[in-house]
Amino acid sequence: MTVLLNLLFLMIAATGASVVLIREPRRQVFAIALNGLVLTLLFTALQAPDVALSELAVGTAAVPLLFMIVLSAVRTAEPGQDTQSGEDA
Amino acid sequence: MSLLPYAVAAWLFGVGLYGIATSRNYIHLIGCLSVCQSATYVLLLGIGYRFDAIAPIFYDHPPGTPAVDPVMQALVLTDIVVGATLTALLLVLALQVYKRTGTLDPERLRPMRGTRAPGPRPRSTDRPPTKRAAPPAARS
């Protein structure tokens, strides 16, 4: 059990660093989802099943979905369409 | 518990702060902020954990069985919900910044000023913040 916990803690450290070090936001979304999945496994191993369930719903599904929605909105949004003041893009 | 959860929490917070400080994209920056928040999850659950203890659900265990601390788990649950809300709010703000300025790079944003560059102003809804922002600039 201790070995599993230590392994999961080290995986959390690695996936958290990968979220930061992947600079392209479209690829970072997958790192965020993986980080949420490893956090879910860690919470299950730490005897916190309710927290693991909510982290599975929020961190693995909802937050990457939000990031993907915003990325698609940024890609289709016309820069400066709110003000149309001709500022440089 | 051992020292490893605290070390991992400190590492996650540090690497998240590094990402926030060096990020050139607001969406990437919000992801780094969520890494900082996951440091608090690891810290709180590491504080409340006990070895050889059950989850704090006493449906099929007699009362008095050693269990991990349920208060820390409630705190982490609140933390996750607040973190998801904060991420959603910041993503919407980043989208509005992109629509107004056309960039997501924090380095390329100019500070807000009371006066704007000359140009067509088709909407009158943008006018009141400009008027409100002008007098402090004139006073100072």
Automatic annotation (TrEMBL), chain A:
Acetylation recorded as keyword: no
Membrane-spanning parts: 6-22, 29-46, 52-74
Cellular component per GO, a single term: plasma membrane
Key words of the record: Cell membrane, Membrane, Transmembrane, Transmembrane helix
Main location: membrane
Residues of the MrpA C-terminal/MbhD domain: 10-74
Topology of this chain in the membrane: Multi-pass membrane protein
InterPro entries, per database record: MrpA_C/MbhD, Nuo/plastoQ_OxRdtase_6_NuoJ
Record localization: Cell membrane
Top-level taxon of origin: Bacteria
This protein's name: DUF4040 domain-containing protein
Species this chain originates from: Methylobacterium planeticum
TrEMBL record, chain B:
Family affiliation: Belongs to the CPA3 antiporters (TC 2.A.63) subunit C family.
TM region(s), chain numbering: 6-27, 39-59, 71-98
Membrane topology, from the record: Multi-pass membrane protein
Pfam families per record: Oxidored_q2
Designated name of the protein: Dehydrogenase
PANTHER family: ANTIPORTER SUBUNIT MNHC2-RELATED
Sorted UniProt keywords: Cell membrane, Membrane, Transmembrane, Transmembrane helix
Biased composition, class Low complexity, residue ranges: 131-140
InterPro entries named among the record's database cross-references: CPA3_antiporter_subunitC (IPR050601), NUOK/Mnh_C1-like (IPR039428)
UniProt region (Disordered), positions on chain: 106-140
Keyword Transmembrane in record: yes
Record organism: Methylobacterium planeticum
Subcellular location per the Swiss-Prot or TrEMBL entry: Cell membrane
Main subcellular localisation: membrane
An annotated GO cellular component: plasma membrane
